[in-house]
């Protein structure tokens, strides 16, 4: 699906999210599914996971632009066109460089210095 490929090309996006129970997907004819994309009659929802160091708002805006451009259909402009909605579901923290503390995720360096 064009929306999936467009979202994954945006710098800072590491993957699409299927939600905590794998429920976020679009099911297409021929038993194909598109994880991380949900279609409604009026909206196209894109659920992304981005790098923890990325600027969240900027990445989300670039995903919106990329998906909107990739899925635009001149025949569906105006009433009846789908609105692109971007959800940042999670942040990917580099493996081995974080630890969970009582107040959430903190850098290992902070733990070693202060704890």
UniProtKB/TrEMBL annotation:
Region Disordered: what ranges?
95-115
What name does UniProt use for this protein? Asp23/Gls24 family envelope stress response protein
Species name: Luteimicrobium album
């Amino acid at each position: 699906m064009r929306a999936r490929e467009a979202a994954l090309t945006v710098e800072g996006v590491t993957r699409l999210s299927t939600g905590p129970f794998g429920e976020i997907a679009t099911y297409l004819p021929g038993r194909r599914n598109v994880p991380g994309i949900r279609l409604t009659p009026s909206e196209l929802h894109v659920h992304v996971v981005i790098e923890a160091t990325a600027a969240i708002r900027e990445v989300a805006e670039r995903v919106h632009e990329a998906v909107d451009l990739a899925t635009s259909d001149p025949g569906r402009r105006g009433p009846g066109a789908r609105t692109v909605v971007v959800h940042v579901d999670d942040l990917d923290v580099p493996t081995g460089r974080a630890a969970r503390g009582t107040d959430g995720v903190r850098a290992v360096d902070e733990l070693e210095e202060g704890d």
